[in-house]
Amino acid sequence: MKIPYENLADINKIYHDDFLKTFKEFLDTGYFILGKEVSSFEESFARYCDVQHSVGLASGLDGLILSLDALELVKGGEVIVAANSYVASVLSIMRAGLVPKLVEPDDDTLNICPKNIKAAINNKTVAIMPVHMYGKICDMKEIMNIANDHGLKVVEDCAQGHGAKLDGKIAGSWGDCNAFSFYPTKNLGALGDAGAITTNSEKLKEKISALRNYGSHQKYYNKYVGYNSRLDELQAAFLNFKLKKLDELNAHKRKLAQIYFENLNTDKFRLPVVDARYEDVFHIFAVRINERNKFQEYLSKNGIGTIIHYPIPPHNQEALSEFFTNEYPVTEKIHDEIISLPSSFMHSEDDIKYVCDICNNF
Ligand SMILES: Cc1ncc(COP(=O)(O)O)c(C=O)c1O
């Protein structure tokens, strides 16, 4: 039996007819840029995230850059971010003219550690960027307390956390301005690149709406040095449809995670941390094992697809290594041990039980 890690065609197959209908309606409107689909998605997504505003953008990376830009942080200021984040979080800080201050994550939750945030704060710190890794929201209560105590801005990176909650409060509703990616593999995935920000600030919403459109609120009048980062109207139409399915998809991923929790041998594998206060959405089901590379090879020989999220931490990337001189042993250990197992909408409970059996026989 072959179990691929993920197959985007299969994940979207059940919606095939709906997508064709959506495309036809879109084509017939003749309105291809910033039309009704974008504004309707912005309204629905803001409601889903329990905030006043959402602004649709071209990608998650742009969501982070434009959030930092709109907050008008002092150039050269430091933004605290987890050293084990996906490289995009770090790139966004640099692209916004700021300095990424990498801190170690918590070795159990794999999310940024509040204690390490506190230790990293100095007179150059301007913001914190908590990244909700693998579908678990960061300890936002503690992080917001730290930010408030030190007068820092917070930009949540929610690319992996659509719908994740802490004490019932959803990702994207905690920080000042928060970014989402709708890259096709995300829990809410478009059929191409797409992103958005969420905020309760009318001022930030206005500024980011202009920044995404050359810095213009009004055609041919430019208030800011902007970008072209509009959410594509067709992607917004697909997202309007897929947003209605997000809770069902998250529930499916939770069910598959439960099968892993019940069946994987915990003497062999270090599983994600479970805490009743946290509602995880398992964007990625990542486990840790000492002989990770051998294990991945073994699974591959047995027809099971896996991915390493991620093989190289940002501070060791060719493009970035010159900017970072500190050592990050917790981060590096995570990168050596982590492996993501199949857990997508196309996988059945039987598929995952089979994966567990093969894993336990390693
Ligand atoms: C944590 C994180 N931040 C940011 C991004 C960037 O999103 P996008 O690919 O839409 O630019 C990603 C995408 O994979 C991500 O995982």
Question: Which features characterize this protein?
Answer:
362 residues; binds pyridoxal-5'-phosphate; 14 strands; 14% strand; alpha/beta; four-stranded parallel β-sheet; single chain; Aspartate Aminotransferase, domain 1; three-stranded antiparallel β-sheet; Aspartate Aminotransferase, domain 2; 2 domains
* Distance between the ends: 17 Å
User: Strands across the major sheet, in which order?
Assistant: 3-2-4-5
Q: Can you name the CATH architecture of the largest domain?
A: 3-Layer(aba) Sandwich
Helix/strand/pairing category: alpha/beta
Number of helices: 13
Give the proportion of residues in helices: 25-40%
Report the C-alpha radius of gyration, rounded: 20 Å
The poorly predicted ranges are none
Strand/helix succession: HHHEHEHEHEHEEEEEHEEHHEEHHEH
- Backbone shape: globular
Q: What do the pLDDT scores average to? A: 98
| CATH C-level label of the largest domain | Alpha Beta
Task: Assess the beta-strand content as a share of residues.
Answer: 5-15%
Could you walk me through the main structural features you see in this protein, from its secondary elements to its overall organization?
The chain has 362 residues and is of the alpha/beta class. The chain has 2 domains: 8-243, Aspartate Aminotransferase, domain 2 (3-Layer(aba) Sandwich); 246-360, Aspartate Aminotransferase, domain 1. It has 13 helices and 14 strands. It has helices at residues 8-13, 16-29, 36-48, 60-70, 87-95, 114-120, 140-150, 202-211, 233-243, 246-263, 292-301, 329-337, 349-360; strands at 53-57, 78-82, 99-103, 125-129, 153-154, 165-166, 169-170, 178-181, 195-199, 216-218, 221-222, 278-279, 285-288, 338-341. The strands form 5 sheets. It has a 4-stranded parallel β-sheet with strand order 3-2-4-5, sandwiched between helices. Helix 7 links the parallel strand 4 and strand 5. Helix 2 runs antiparallel to helix 9 (233-243) and helix 10 (246-263) runs parallel beside helix 13 (349-360). The model has no long low-confidence stretch (mean pLDDT 98). It binds pyridoxal-5'-phosphate. Pyridoxal-5'-phosphate is lined by residues 59-61, 85-86, 88-89, 131, 157, 159-160, 181, 183, 193, 195.
